[in-house]
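For the sake of transparency, this paper describes our internal protein records without simplification. An entry from our holdings is shown next, in its original layout:
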Amino acid sequence: MTNTAPSLTVLLGCLTFCVTPMTAAAQSTRPALAGLSAERLDRIDELMQQRIDAQWFPGAVTLVARNGRIVHLEAQGLMDVESARPMQTDAVFRIMSMTKPVVAVAVLMMVEEGKMRLNDPVSRFVPELGALAVAADVGTSPASRGLRFDVTIRDLLTHTAGLMTRAGTNQPAITIGPNESLADVLPRLKGASLDFEPGTRWAYSGQFGFDVLVRAVEVASGVPFGQFAEQRIFGPLAMDDTFFFPPEGHPRIATLYASVDGKLEPRGEERFVNGVYISGGGGLFSSAEDYLKFAMMLANGGQLDGTTYLSRKTVDLMRSAFISDSLPGRTAGEGYGLGVRVVTDQAARNTLLSNGSFGWSGAFNTHFFIDPEENVIGIFMTQSAFLATRQQLRDDFETAVMQALVDDAATH
């Protein structure tokens, strides 16, 4: 059965977060004062150094915060191999799909303002996407093949729409030209077919599902998304190192690499980084400390430093398991909310994270999680494109963070 509400334990954890003062500029504290072992936190550095030595990536920034205070912030390795430039804690990374939770927050702002509903058909905002047909050559119910369905905002937020997913076998090739915007490209999706009947499977829409959501926010708000995000999220949160298009020659952007046969090779930018195309699926650049501000806002029930971005009830909704782990395509013990994974059974997931923990990751090997019960936020950032072992690293990082806890969060 789908879990549509957080457990009592998770709600109590949220209440603990809400009474803990948090500010946009997070302060640092000694690990022991936040109930963590400094010696055990060193295991995070050991984990990352092992992977750096193995040429998984050239460098990394890792960050852990508890009760709104940073207890660990480290830079290791290099941000550029060719120049041997050391990694620095304020390095800027291409965060790829960690863009998606930001888009989800923007959508929920529109929902709160009555300009959008979760059950609205996407065609209300992108008319070309009205009543798409289910593909005939995908392993779905024969009764669904060829039928037409209206994809909803909720379907896209939860990756249950079947639109341009990794499961697709007969999709149009959508290219993004050098000067093309969302408004130029998205109408071409009218030739797409759904990979399954919406709601019957979970299949990740890596780019275009959330690109459509960005366009929906633009239409609903009447504001270009880059401007919307700056005015409503990045500016108020003082996320000064978060943007879709970096200024030319930005000095703190880590070089992107791919690990090929045990060696690191430089890799160019994605086609959507063209100066005009706002990719909700993966277009943002950010730093670990910048993203911490966004995560702290969510951890604090939609508020930070006296500003309310979302209501507490909306954040509770966002991190609820709309999709259970029993739906085909999901991982055992891990449901899915609105733009974020949600831990629903820590034993089934084999994780030290508490039930109700939520977050997401990026294809260039970035990751964040929020554990409301323990008041912990963990973030790591590297620049290794489509690393085959990135899921293993995410799990190991979560373990390295959570095993460092030695005291109960409520005592600090």
